[in-house]
Specification:
1 helix, single chain, mainly beta, extended, 149 residues, Elongation Factor Tu (Ef-tu), domain 3
Length: 149
């Protein structure tokens, strides 16, 4: 372990290729050519703290879960946002998606997957700026549940 000029430890922890991430949206094909620029997944549970009068005790009360997934795409060869809206737009027929990323190099590779289920489209947007004239589409999904392996 080496010390840097700020007297901190610096140690090599491994490598992973950034281009090994994949997105799979429900029954749609993979997202190659979709020019997806950003993906945010938030999934939370409501937790309240209750205090007992006259006692130092407190209690956690678990509430319901809620999740959203936001996707931004530059309009390019594959218009995944329009396909995703068609796939996830029917509130009576929610769909699922998977986000997968491969870590490590060569023989030490491992794939991690986050599955989002019972998702429905909630919001659609588009924007363009004068500096690059790129049309950026965005959408938000309501996420029913999240699991990972």
């Amino acid at each position: 372990m080496a010390r840097d000029i700020y007297n901190r430890n610096a140690e090599y922890g491994g490598s992973f290729p950034a281009d090994m991430a994949t997105l799979t949206f429900g029954k749609l094909a993979n997202s190659k050519g979709a020019v997806v620029q950003q993906l945010n997944l938030n999934y939370e549970q409501a937790v309240s703290r209750l205090y007992e009068i006259g006692s130092p005790l407190f209690y956690y009360v678990h509430g319901r879960t809620d999740g959203t997934l936001t996707l931004q795409q530059v309009l390019g060869p594959s218009d995944i946002v329009d396909q995703v809206i068609r796939e996830f737009g029917d509130i009576c027929s929610p769909s699922s998606l998977q986000i997968s990323a491969t870590t490590g190099c060569k023989v030490t590779r491992a794939t991690k997957t986050i599955a989002c289920g019972d998702c429905v489209a909630r919001q659609f947007g588009a924007s363009m700026s004068s500096d690059n004239a790129l049309l950026i589409k965005s959408m938000q999904l309501m996420v029913g549940w999240v699991a990972q392996n």
